[in-house]
Amino acid sequence: MGDPEPWPGTTAFLDGTQRSEVVAYCGSAPILVATIRAAVLEREDRRLKAMILRERFLCVGRRVALDAAGDALAGLDRVEIDDSQTAHPVRDLVQAGHAIDEARGALEREAGLAYRMQRDGWLVVDGSLAEFPAAGTDQRMVAVSKSHSTLPFDGEELERYLRLPVGHRSSIFTPASRRFVPVRAWALRLWHWEGRDLLHGLVRVEVAPGVGTTERADELSRWILAERAPVSSPDKRWDRLLYGVRRVEEFLRARD
Amino acid sequence: MPPTTPLIGRVVATELKPSTPHQFYFWTREDAAVGIGAIVRVEHGERTVYAVVTDGFAYADLSSPLYAVIGADGDPTHEALEPTLRTEVRLYSAAVLRQSPEEPLQPVPLGAVHLASDGDVELALRMDTYRNAARPTAIPVGVYAAGGHDAPVYLDCDFLLGPEAAHLNITGVSGLATKTSAVEFLLSSIFQTFPAHRGSVAAVCFNVKGPDLCFLDQPCGLTDADHALYARLGLAAEPFANVRYFAPHKADGVNLNTLRTHEALQANTEPLVWGLREVLDYAEVVMNRDDIDAKADAFIDFLGDRVVGKDFKDESLRGKPFRVETFADLEEFFRGIFDFMEAMGRGGEVWRTHHIATIRKVRNRLSNISTRAKGLVVDDGVANDLPWTKFADRAVYVVDVAGIDPLAQDLVFARVVSKLREHLERRDLGVDHVVVFVDELNKYAPADGPDTYVRKMLLDLAERGRYLGLVLFSAQQFRSQVQRRVVGNAGTGIYGRMDMDELATPGYATISPSTKIKLATLPKGELMIRHPHFTQPIFVRFPRPAVLSGREGVEKYPPAAELPFANAVARQLRQMDRALSTDECLDLVAGRAERDVRRALAATRRERPADVKAYFKAILGRRVDGEVARPRITIPPIVSSGDPYA
Prior knowledge:
The complex is a heterodimer. By secondary structure, chain A is of the alpha/beta class. Chain A has helices at 63-69, 89-118, 155-162, 214-226, 243-253, and strands at residues 11-26, 29-44, 47-61, 77-80, 122-126, 141-145, 184-189, 202-207.
């Protein structure tokens, strides 16, 4: 795979944030208001600068609950959750959470698209690329996921996957069950895991199928390895969180 | 509406670092042209706040240095390869100079921060109140510069020369031309801009070391930057037009004890010569603590009131009256007393209620003056003094005491300042305000040590001088070593480059650490100023004074070689009358007693007659030529045979 290499040319980082709170109940049905934001920060001469910012203010709940609130929710975008079942404060909250997640994902896609309309540099996405419809054809988009809730292998292969030494990547694979587009992926170990947990410093990299060649995977891995510094401290996920992505998060949180 | 200047930052306030009515924090871009001492303007709605930057902080989003090490794999060279620069904050603290509106006084709002414009600087430092008044009282002191922008800074002469506040004190390490240069420039500025409606002003400068103040009337070369500063301040870059120098003689009584003895500079250089009358009132200056008692005081008063300058008759001493005008006369008077008391034998310890021991002590101390201050105090000469009652507006009188004994220096300080005070009280000095410049204040008014006459005098000047128009401009290397009340009474304070040890003393506790660092590294020509109108100290640049520095002056006008007595007299006579030849002068004094020549020279100098030679000769008196006694012609004895019976 080779030694870390700085990413050539202009690189941008995309991420989104969400914040929500219950503001009222209509009977037992909760009404939430949420703020979702997405932004792209572009790096030029080692400095990050905000290029795209999208934000929406939502009210989330059952239709009847939102209707009952009337003008109190004026100015907020309505997001209705499934009301086929009877209202349940916990279940409805979980549903609302999913709805907000989806809305934030959509806003991220919108921000990514907006960036791509303006610039053609590499765009590093926090999370999975599979939810980006354009990713199937975008040759300069790469996702770096910190999450390993779904693992692609099992048995001996999984053990090999989880015990990757630092500076090594797994073979390229095609993750299953992607909603919009197929992607190619591989795991990459950014930091030594020995003495820590197996997932320490382990990220999953996703690219469009056309980019998923061995040479390209090596090249991208070297670039991503170079992104280990600066370390994203004091974030607890510093071993997997790229500094550029963290800056996008900080940029968005500063607006709360 | 405030003038538009670039927005450079925004006020931030947190629970731990809140804004107050007198202090706040703001952040800027990394490359913002702001630094310690910069004046900024905060705008928020109807409120405008002016402030000066007092401290700066920078930090990154790094929770521990350890993560920097981890990120660079322990190799500092790797850090330069990091693809993204860490976020760094530039945070500044600023001290409020002025708020508008001033009431109600509120914490500084979270507004936009701009660099101050000319108009802002004027408002921030409250200079509008005395610069744009119907009768302006502004004196340019330097240029405030920040972010490629500069603005003139003015002092209020009512608070510099009185009567509201007065006095100026300068602190700074030696060798950076800060103290002397600053005073020279400021005096020039005062002379050029002191408003006519505030009266007239002159300066008396004591030159206490080397040639520091010896060339105030000589122009120097200035750089373009200096000329630009003068133009910005609206001042002419010219040396002082009216300067008179006074220096004591050397012990020979004719060569001047100064480095300003070059032939070309003699026109306005005069000897400072005092006689008994001039120093008797200041006898206390030369007495040490043990000497000062009521008995000695009483006897000195007796001499001053009854003897000196009067016909004093005491049959017990001698038949004819004593006329004591000089130290020589005084010595004769004392001899008369001692002769009388010795003749009395037992019981002869007291003369006119004064004990012989007291008389002897006073005699010793007074005769000590003429010994230790020889050249300044003459036994028998004619005094040549500062032009009391004839001080000229915008004139500088330099008293060069650099080469004389410390005791004589004390005597000069005491008498000159006391005389200034006397004449200002009587309003007959010739000017309304006098600036007295004293360098090395820590020597003359030390924080520790005996309470000398000079220290008491300087304290009195600092505490009460402003009511009279007598203003003290003082300088020293270490402010902490000067009597606190003397510097404490200085309404205006100027600080040049400072020593860090000095800055660590309690007197500087109110200055922020960054301001202290700036003071410790201040370049030549920059100063920090405190002034009653300025809520916070301000940094300014000032041009070099348009006069030759001491070192340059000595190079351009090297001091004349010390001449033999007769030649020195000839030179002085020729200065008064260029038509006289050196040989003529030498002939005049040949064979004459030095004492007589000194007396005649002093009289001629004082009188400045049209015919110098005739006047000098007349005072000198008729020459009594010596003759070789011829052997007396006598009648030779009659030669005889030798036999008396023949």
